[in-house]
Amino acid sequence: MWLKRYLALGPGRPMWALLADALLAINVPAYENNTPQDIRKNCYLQSWTTSTHTRSSQPTDLLRMIKAGQKYGLRIEGLAFERTILRDMPIWHHIFADSRIRRLTGSNTSKCLRSKHNLQTVGEAEDLAAPLIIINERQSRHRPNNQCNCRDCTEIRETTNCDHPHLCMVRAQELIDTLPPKWDPRVEQPEDVETDPTSIPKTREEEIFDYRLTTTGDLSDIFRIFTDKSHTPVNDTYVRRIQTDSNETLINVATDGSCIDNGKDNALAGAGIYFAEGDPRNKSLRLPKMAGDTQLTQSNQTAELLA
After folding, report:
1. End-to-end distance of the chain based on CA atoms, in angstroms?
2. What SS3 state is found at 284?
3. Is 144 part of any domain?
4. Quick one: signal sequence residues (predicted)?
5. Phi and psi at residue 74, in whole multiples of 5°?
6. Up-side HSE of residue 274: CA atoms within 13 Å toward CB?
7. pLDDT digits 0-9 by tens, 250-292
8. What is the pLDDT of residues 150-167, one digit of tens each?
């Protein structure tokens, strides 16, 4: 429960969690001393580690909390995340960024981003780098030098007292470029082509299948427990395009799964797909025991998913 409340990263986060952030950032292994302390915001969202040794000065309650997360396989996991979540992630030492992001933190430009621009999140980096975007071979009014007097550079100088807006824009873009597609808000994401199932009109009393891959909410909603340590989540995007046919017709298909000796070691499961009597598309399927390197549980539920 402590860990769940600590990771409640939305607006209702408890006050003690902010103190825990500071304590976890102070008590780090010796090899993390080169990581600037102002970068260490959350060890579950970033690639730095906090001390977990009993001989460290880490408070006992925080040690228990961290070890509970390790015991139950706590980690970030999901097929896709909505863009607001991607933008809320910390940019410095982003947990899924390429390791070269660590080499981008020590320069004077990066120090300017943190001290003058107060740049903390992926979204803030994306906004700062926006004037560099070229659309249809046309760039914005920004010019690639520090003497540029475009509206964006002028505003940056006035609000942050930055002497080199262009360099800071470039560094912000370099930081985002270290992110894999799944965590890059500039990349096309599944949410761009997903439709809210509640907006689909119903006929009769059927249930509309929610096919969306995207995890919604805030940073609190991206964590999972009881994860498989032998499985490494991929950081590619899964954009499923559904082609709409103007001549579409409604087809009723019945699917089901069944299992012999369900719940036993010798269980055998299968699935069936039924269109109509004598229809060549009717099919019966045997549930395989393995899918690649993953063992499939022989059960009614798994067979129904196969169908």
Report:
1. 38
2. strand
3. yes
4. 1-30
5. -70, 130
6. 9
7. 788 888 888 888 878 888 888 889 888 888 889 888 888 888 7
8. 999 999 999 999 999 999
